[in-house]
Each structure stands twice: as C-alpha cells, then as structure tokens.
Amino acid sequence: MDYFYTPPENISGTSIRIDGEEYSHLTHVMRKKAGDTIRVVDGLGTAYDVLLEETLKGIATGAILKTLLHHNEPGINLTIAVGILKNPSKFDFLVEKVTELGVKEVIPLLTERTIPSHAKIDRWQKLALAGMKQSGRSYLPVVRELTSLEQFLQNDRAFDASFIAHEKLTDGPRRVDMSFRSAVILIGPEGGFSDNEIDHCRKAGFTPLYFGERRLRTETAAIVASTLILVTY
Which pTM was predicted? Predict the structure, then answer.
C-alpha cells in the first residue's frame, strides 16, 4: 500500500485531508483518485488506512477505514547526534538510512574537527519525510538545528542511556544491555572527536561503543550504531 503524510491538524474524527506537496505527489505522481485506498501517516506514530473520496482544487479528502497505533516503530526512542560532514551528499545519505532504521531524532553537531559551519536542515527534514514513507514508518524523525557539542552536553534532556562511538575507545561493550527506552549516540565527523571532546563526553556519563578495529566513516558508523540499538531490539 502506498504511504502518504499529512499533519495531525488535517485529521478530524473519521476524515483526513491531504494538501500541499503531498497532494501533488498523491494525484500527479502516484495518480491516485477517488475510490482508491491508501495509507496515511501523521508523523507522530499513527497510520490510517484511508478510502479517498475526493481530489479537487489542491485538496484530497478521505474516510478513515482503520487506525494503526505505533505503526512500524521500534520500542526504543533513539537520537543520533552526528558531526556534520564536508560532503553534504554523505549527510543526506546518513539521514535517509537512519530514518529507515527507526531513529526518532537527528542532531547535526559542530565539533572541533567539523569543517562545514552551516547545515541544510530543511533539506534533511524533507529527506527524513521521504525515508519515513519509503520504509513504512509512521513517525517523522525531527532534524534539529545545528548544535555545538558543548551546547549539546550542557542540554538537560534526559536519556535512559548515552553512548559515544569512537575506534579508540576499546573499553566499550560489544553488546548493549537493551534495558532502556530512550538512548542517544554521539558520532564524530571526519577525523573523529578530539581527545579533549572524548574526555568531556566520558565525564558527562557517555558510555563508549566499540565497533572493532576498523575505522568507519561517519555515515557508516551512524548506520551501524542505529542497527545495533534498533534492529536487534
């Protein structure tokens, strides 16, 4: 079944409205029309099987046939905080893949070894939307504003578990105790975190994650880390 997105404010009682870019995708790209059944997600974890009733003047309306709560979502809320990359296409790829794996939030980081100073938040949020629909998820991951590692460590948000990935942190576990409901993983940019940054993260309570002796690219490490936490859950 084809997936489409509409925000919660477009859902009322037993009816759903689709407009904007999703309407164009629905009618002009996918060629859906009245009488077709589609699946619509609200980006907050709920999916709906919908019978299209009308597609006119830039607005599609439909009747809800079935509601699916927490549809295709993992039992762990995982945040990935990642140093942004010199090659923007690699960070595009990273956002797409961690979205498909089930990550709930992506935080682009500025670190000592980060080269770019600007982030393409709008583009990455659109990629997260496409990845959500492609993978059949119902929650739309949030791509946060560019944040310095120092600011992130000062943030008072609470996670059940906090990890940092780095090839030098060989004291990290090969297997993760999955007795938590929320977690955050820090992953450095090209060149990794500096020794000073690692020290600050360790003092802030971050547990090292060790992926073996091979040095992984940032986008690869993000995929491996997400898989370790989410796919094995």
Answer: 0.91
